[in-house]
Specification:
CATH topology: Rossmann fold
Oligomer: single chain
CATH superfamily: Vaccinia Virus protein VP39
Number of domains: 1
Structural class: alpha/beta
């Protein structure tokens, strides 16, 4: 069985032209276990088969513990109807870029549903990318900056933007002429039971509006699909505590409140999202 670093190198042999130096915007050549551009900027494969494209270290609250819980919830089927809708709306054989991929569970689940083209995932969290390198799929994982993507111009058929920030100037640069962005954003009732359990009724976290996100997407891209997906998910017993740890919602929860919810965990959760699909004008 190939080591991760060798598996990643084999992937780069075929796909290194999809990458672009984030420092000088020139193309890369693969030399040994490194991507090197004409200006001699060099990015090396780690033992885990990942590349760190940032020029400095970044602290993020999206740590290993949270991402492990997130991955368990995704793999429990919590987002299955959404993932099935995404697969119905995308090019399954083209290059796919997962923006803010975390631990890689969404790409893994989409692969099980038929996504079979070259897959690229990046995140600003090193913990997330190291976890993603364990996913049993053919994909390339990197630590990168959303505002300075290490991917070539017009190199991607699909950009997945699932519960993560956007940078439309970079999206437009890396998308192929007929490429599309598929964006998933929360709607008003997303995780409403968890919000109610964690926060008082008058807390601002009980209220969510995606109006600004929708307006920005519509301004930057031609909207091809605008679809609301709402359902109730019955949480498997073994995952009920995972739900409490998987989201930024829990970061500011009082210790005693969290302990109370742990003793009486939720059995159902509302999933309420909007799926947008857009293309460059």
């Amino acid at each position: 069985m190939l080591k991760k670093i060798d598996f990643a190198r084999n992937f780069l042999e075929t796909h290194h032209e999809q990458f672009l130096c984030p420092v000088c915007k020139q193309s890369f050549q693969l030399e040994g276990y490194s991507l090197i551009c004409a200006q001699n900027h060099q990015f090396d494969l780690s033992k885990k088969g990942t590349i760190y494209f940032l020029s400095h270290s970044v602290q993020t609250e999206y740590n290993k513990k949270m991402l492990l819980h997130r991955g368990k919830m995704i793999q429990s089927g919590m987002y299955q109807p959404i993932l099935e809708t995404i697969v119905d709306r995308m090019d399954l054989a083209g290059n796919t870029l997962d923006v803010g991929c975390g631990e890689g569970s969404f790409l893994f689940e989409l692969s099980k549903l038929g996504l079979n083209g070259p897959k690229f995932g990046f995140d600003i969290s090193k913990d997330g990318i190291y976890l993603a390198s364990n996913q049993p799929i053919e994909a390339f994982w990197s630590v990168a900056d959303l505002t300075n993507l290490p991917f070539a111009n017009q190199s991607m058929e699909t950009i997945l933007n699932i519960f993560s920030p956007s940078h439309y100037q970079e999206f437009q640069r890396v998308l192929k002429k007929d490429g599309t962005v598929i964006k998933i954003i929360p709607e008003a009732h997303y995780l409403k039971e968890l919000r109610a359990a964690f926060y008082p009724e008058d807390d601002i976290k009980q209220v969510y509006s995606n109006d600004k996100v929708l307006a920005k997407f519509s301004k930057e891209l031609d909207v091809l699909v605008d679809e609301r997906i709402t359902f109730t998910f019955t949480i498997p017993k073994e995952n009920r505590l995972d739900l409490l740890e998987m989201s930024p919602l829990e970061w500011s929860v009082a210790k005693e409140v969290k302990e109370a919810v742990q003793k009486n965990p939720l059995t159902e959760i509302t999933i309420d999202v909007r799926m947008l699909k857009g293309k460059v004008r």
